[in-house]
Design goal:
Radius of gyration of chain A: 27 Å
Largest sheet of chain A: 8 strands, mixed
CATH superfamily of the domain at 376-488 in chain A: CBS-domain
Number of helices of chain A: 16
CATH architecture of the domain at 376-488 in chain A: Roll
Strand order of the largest sheet of chain A: 1-4-8-5-11-12-13-14
CATH topology of the domain at 376-488 in chain A: CBS-domain
Distance between the termini of chain A: 9 Å
Number of strands of chain A: 19
Oligomer: homodimer
């Protein structure tokens, strides 16, 4: 397994919705466009889809290279052949959130109602709205369910919202360095950052697209401020210490003397070249509004969740603290949700989720390898009743391209299995009835069984598929080594 | 001991220096004015002086009330009759730092060289310069030494600098929620705050005093940002939660929706009414430059310190962390400095030093009550040699108004004590020589003895004064119950 491998060149696609998006506020976003990228190949069962959700200023370009770019997508350390989100196994989708400015409709786009830029006419969007827009994309791609949804920071909020808005569709969910609600400290930083933009004379109440002036100073200060919150004190000390920029002694003036000052200014300036100030206002507002609690209860709010969850915090993250993440874990556990928790041991602060590929590789790979039967099983139910005759069985086998068919009684409970080998036996013995030839000692599994356990069972008995049954022994689907090896064998 | 008591009305005084202040950079600040306040009464021995150093945006008005004000000085919880810095015992001085805008010369004042406002012509000042200016004030007030120097945040830096620049003058020092150097994170926040001011079009390169426009937006954003760093996440949650301001539902726009937003904006706006933007630039720069280490060694740098130290950190302070304060304590201990350390248990974050009067009262009172002999002793040495005659002793006693005179040998070592009572005995017995009447069994103490211990000793033996001797038994001063009760009896 090599981490050096890259996806190579990738392209952004655009899904132009032919319907309006109804928003949480009741407002309508007219036929938005959603920018997205995909990596890897969708398998026949459509069971290998992983949706990646990006953070505040991210985009659809999560991995691989765009032509002419000097660096790859924002999560290339995690996504690619042989990487934790392995494009040899999974079909990865990442889309730009609504309200942003990286290809998906946002305030810097044209309002079809006016023919002019949206600016502040763009409707307020929430994390739920972002998730609804992603669901439209998933539907458009005819994907029935998501093997996994994963994201950090604002991406983690989308992950949590997915498990709540679409519990039937999300099998596994990985939430990193994020929260169940924005804290007053987070709101405070966002508010001051917005204030910095709004006070910039070039902001002009959001109506600056017609001019050649942008609220660059305000946006730059906002980004500088935000950037401090993404780093830990330790990592700043490690990275900059109190070293001076290009000099040995203080200049005793108001220029950028310390390296950390130059670094932040550079971050601020380059950000203004890649991000729209109004989008920054809208997306930070979406963060502020986010609070999934019911009457301040996390437990109550998280009850709909059926997905297996991995919650990952970062030891040195003071913006999205591990204490907050642990509160979510506690609430999930008290709801009997199958949840794993890892605290990433890192000095990088909040940004560690974009950096710590070693630890994330281990934790994410481990989590995904412990998937359950229901994460990958086929839900198609093909059975015969125990009164069926041999010919019926042979015809069904050919029609469905199956070598194993479960036999059920009149109560739909499993009583046996007939295989292609059994049918050969019927020809040899002139048997006419299924009951005469079927295997009565059938291995089965349940949808919450671990893939690891049933893989062991199948190897032990040299069988390639198992019927999945419910608590009443009724057949609800099947799982084969093909399903599994698609995703999990390493 | 009542904490309800206030100093009542107080006034600010102004010390107009008649000499220039030489600055650390080599620049000169022409005859600055220093604004200061004093509370309590200077005792005859001038041994009860406590200098209070203020934080970034503080001023000389530390306690009591100015006419017409709605709230008292910034540390009224600590300073006053019966409070930890007890104005019934101590003579408290607090002066505004140079570079500020609260009465002491700063960039908003007139440059005597040009007759115009200083603006950016004001020289860069450092924490050391602030301390040197305070020393000029202390000299002007004819105060020989400081019983204690105390301050939090930037005030704590001044405290540390005092112990290093004037080790002979500082007896006790209390440093709260501060640091031995500014960390890159602190520099980063300061840099972004300055950037916000500098990018304000009304800042005009610091030359705005002639106009009616001030860089209020930039200064307001800077203050909002700084204010976040003074509070802990917990205290913000306690204070604001996610409650909305004057409404029950989201308005879904860019107004101040959350209470924390309104609070911060209010803090920003009121700050612009009381503080000069250029002073903010200069004082944050002074913070940035502060680093007392020698070649990155704290231990090396702290070697000059002779003061007894109290280091106080705040558990929830993430800007000036307790880890950093503990590094200072470790370095002091390895230098055998007499240092006490307390971590204030508070959820208020950095601002706790302006709030937690209960804990601070306990810790500070306890520290001050454990003073050493040298903190309050008289350094006047009055002795007689063992060859002296009775008449000489009687005359000396009358001249110096002393009831006890130590008798030393030719090596200046103490060999006895003669008291007024001994002289009466001489008259009764017609003795002529000191040796015939002096008490040979003399109680003494050393300058590092604890006041508490020697007070116990004096009470036990019913004596009102002790000679202070050095390691070679030479007399170096004296201490009396008057010295002690002045300061410490409670």
């Amino acid at each position: 397994m090599s981490y050096e491998k890259s996806l190579g060149t990738v392209d952004t696609h655009y899904f132009h919705m032919d319907e309006d998006l109804k928003l949480e506020t009741g407002d309508i976003l007219k036929k938005p466009t959603i920018a997205y990228e995909t990596y890897g190949v969708l398998n026949n069962e459509k069971s290998n889809v992983i949706l990646v959700c990006h953070a505040l200023t991210g985009d659809a370009h999560a991995a691989g290279w765009h032509n002419g770019d000097k660096k790859p997508g924002w999560w290339d350390i995690i996504i690619g052949p042989g990487k934790p989100l392995d494009t040899n196994r999974y079909f990865i989708i990442c889309s730009n959130v609504i309200g942003s400015c990286k290809g998906t409709t946002g305030p810097s786009d044209i309002n079809p109602d006016t023919g002019d830029y949206y600016g502040l006419d763009f409707p307020i969007v929430t994390i739920t709205d972002m998730v609804h827009a992603q669901k439209k994309l998933i539907d458009h791609l005819e994907i029935p369910y998501l093997y996994c949804v994963v994201g950090g920071s604002m991406g983690g909020m989308q992950v949590l919202q997915w498990t709540l808005s679409y519990p039937d569709i999300v099998r596994n969910a990985i939430m990193i360095a994020s929260g169940a609600y924005s804290t007053p400290q987070q709101i405070a930083f966002n508010a001051v950052e917005r204030r910095s933009i709004i006070e910039d004379v070039n902001w002009n109440k959001g109506d600056y697209y017609h001019t050649d002036k942008r609220p660059e100073q305000g946006l730059s200060v906002a980004r500088m401020m935000a950037h401090i919150t993404y780093l830990s004190n330790e990592s700043m000390y490690e990275k900059f210490g109190r070293r001076l920029q290009d000099k040995n002694t203080f200049s005793y003036d108001f220029s950028n003397e310390f390296q950390v000052e130059s670094y932040l200014e550079h971050q601020g300036v380059t950000f203004t070249q890649r991000f729209d100030a109004n989008s920054y206002l809208y997306l930070t507002k979406a963060l502020d509004y986010f609070d999934i609690r019911n009457n301040n209860s996390l437990e109550e709010a998280l009850k709909p969740i059926t997905a297996r969850m991995l919650i990952m915090s970062i030891s040195s993250d003071w913006l999205y603290t591990h204490e907050h993440m642990e509160d979510i874990v506690m609430a999930l556990r008290s709801n009997n949700v199958d949840v794993s928790y890892s605290r990433l041991n890192s000095e990088y602060g909040h940004d560690a989720f974009l950096i710590e590929n070693g630890q994330m590789n281990y934790i994410i790979s481990n989590f995904l390898s412990k998937a359950r039967v229901k994460d990958v099983m086929s839900h198609k139910v093909i059975t015969l009743t125990d009164g069926a005759d041999i010919k019926e069985a042979a015809e069904l086998m050919m029609t469905c391209n199956k070598t194993h068919i479960p036999i059920v009684d009149t109560n739909e409970k499993i009583v046996g299995l007939v295989t292609a080998w059994d049918l050969s036996k019927a020809i040899a013995t002139n048997a006419e009835n299924i009951e005469d030839i079927m295997t009565r000692n059938v291995y089965t599994c349940h949808e919450n069984d671990s893939i690891f356990d049933i893989t062991t069972k199948m190897k032990e008995h040299n069988i390639s598929g198992l019927p999945v049954i419910d608590e009443e022994d009724k057949v609800i689907g099947s799982i084969t080594t093909a399903h599994i090896s698609n995703l999990l064998d390493k």
